Amino acid sequence: MAKVNGGVSAELMAKGNCNGHGNGVVSTEFKANGKVSGELHANLHRKEKMGDGVVLEHGNDIFSSFSLLPSETENDSNGDACFSTEIPGWYADAPPLWPGEAHVYKVEKVLFQGKSEYHDLFIFESATAGKIVILDGYLQLSEKDEFVYQEMMTHLALCSIPNPKKVLLIGGGDGGILREASRHSSLEQIDICEIDKMVIDVYKQFFPDIAVGFEDPRVSVYIGDGVEFLKSVPQATYDAIILDAFHVMGPGAQEVADKHFLESVARALRPGGVLSSPAESMWHKNFILEDIIADCRKIFKGSVNYAWTTVPAYSSGVVGFMLCATEGAPVDFKNPINPIDGVPNHGVTKGPPKFYNSEVHTAAFCLPSFVKGRRSKN
User: Fold this and answer.
1) HSE toward the beta carbon, residue 324, CA cutoff 13 A
2) Collapsing DSSP states into helix, strand and coil, what is residue 86?
3) Is 317 helix (H, G, I), strand (E, B) or coil?
4) With contact defined as beta carbons under 8 Å apart, do 162 and 168 qualify?
5) Per-residue confidence at 226, pLDDT binned at 50, 70, 90?
6) Hey, which residues does 240 pair with through a beta bridge?
7) In the chain, where do the E strands start and end?
8) In this structure, what are the phi and psi dihedrals at residue 10, rounded to the nearest 5 degrees?
9) Which of 140, 135, 168 is nearest to 240 (CA)?
10) Residues 6 or more apart from 267 whose CB is under 8 A from it?
11) What is the 3 state secondary structure string of 289-316?
């Protein structure tokens, strides 16, 4: 699952200073020369002691989410403002593109902490949202609502085209989108390119109901870089490509990098083929829908639409989706022509979708008036 925090790259903010203390307490101090910096961010080093003698040590490269919240003000010997907090056993998700906000979870048990060549992965059991995954400091999914994102990312695309045969997933090493793709009996080939085998292995261990997607015999797994993989794909290979390995389309995107990558996606799609990608929440202060759509239309010459849904675990509780079609047979994303409602074949899953249906599909493209009326400053 993608890290839904806005932009293909996020600007990291100013450095702070953090001191960790044991005994089940996390304590931090941020100094700002007599005033609070407007760009409070982190070059963090902290330790957490959490039950059963488990001590978590977080290194100096966590720039986005941290289990610390300022709660009291003190003065140090230099007269500088010093914010100190002690919150034992809690994790706060504070994405940098949503400054001043944090979603706090009580940690019942630490399940996994590991680091590969590509990712830092942290999994804990929360008190209210089930198991939660933190990937490179960003909340990736919660067990409570993961199915919403997985189902919408998959079916908004695959239910909008007739009889899809070949689909490519970039990223998505948790297996949830594979799980949802398995519901489509017309699919003959389901390819996934995931850069980090550790992600796949850990999800199979701790989230078997999500990773069940890997059990579909139509699935072929390629371990490697998705950008390089796409370069090797023959032109017009896939009916649908789903991007789940990159930051979402939105205000922080790197335009040139996006352009070249999306051109390779369009090249790999057949005429009338479709892309599904996460997009920024409409609640982001810099969200301008017409800019995002205009950028996509420069590359994808068919239909381009924005959809949205609610995912409580993510910042603002809303996540968007960009649906883009290449030039060819017209694609009406708003009205599914390949519905899965009532289909008895659930693939490798244990039952029908929990969130998605044809009515939700159509409703996802309905936009509030403030989104329609927000105009680009360019």
Assistant:
1) 26
2) strand
3) helix
4) no
5) very high
6) 167, 274
7) 27-31, 46-49, 55-58, 72-75, 81-86, 90-93, 103-115, 120-126, 131-135, 138-142, 166-171, 189-194, 219-223, 238-244, 269-279, 304-310, 318-325
8) -105, 135
9) 168
10) 233, 235, 236
11) HHHHHHHHHCCCCCCEEEEEEECCCCHH
| Cβ atoms of 14 and 37 closer than 8 Å | yes
Which tokens go with 41? 């961010």
Please, are residues 119 and 127 in contact by the beta-carbon 8 Å criterion?
no
The Cα–Cα gap between 165 and 274 comes to 12
DSSP letter (8 states) at residue 328:
S
Q: Which residues are catalytic?
A: 244
Start-end of H helices in the chain: 146-158, 176-181, 197-206, 208-211, 226-232, 255-268, 289-297, 358-363, 369-373
Length of the chain: 378
Q: What is the DSSP letter of 248?
A: P
In the three-class reduction of DSSP (H, G, I as helix; E, B as strand; rest coil), residue 14 is classed as strand
Instruction: Tell me what pLDDT residue 377 has.
Output: 63
C-alpha 107/C-alpha 110 separation (Å) is 7
Angle ∠(338,1,64) on CA atoms, nearest 5? 145
Which residue in this structure is represented by tokens 């068919």? 302
Q: Within 10 Å of residue 22's Cβ, how many Cβ atoms? A: 11
Identity of residue 281: S
C-alpha 306/C-alpha 365 separation (Å) is 6
Asked if residue 158 has pLDDT above 50, the reply is yes
Q: What is the pLDDT of residues 92-122, one digit of tens each?
A: 999 888 888 899 999 999 999 999 999 999 9
| pLDDT beyond 70 at 140 | yes
**In the 8-state DSSP scheme, what is residue 252?**
T
The single residue listed with the structure tokens 């970039």 is: 170
Please answer whether residues 305 and 277 qualify as being in contact, where contact means their C-beta atoms are separated by less than 8 angstroms: no
How far is Cα 112 from Cα 114, in angstroms, rounded to an integer? 7
The percent helix, strand, coil of the chain (3-state, each to 5) is 20, 30, 50
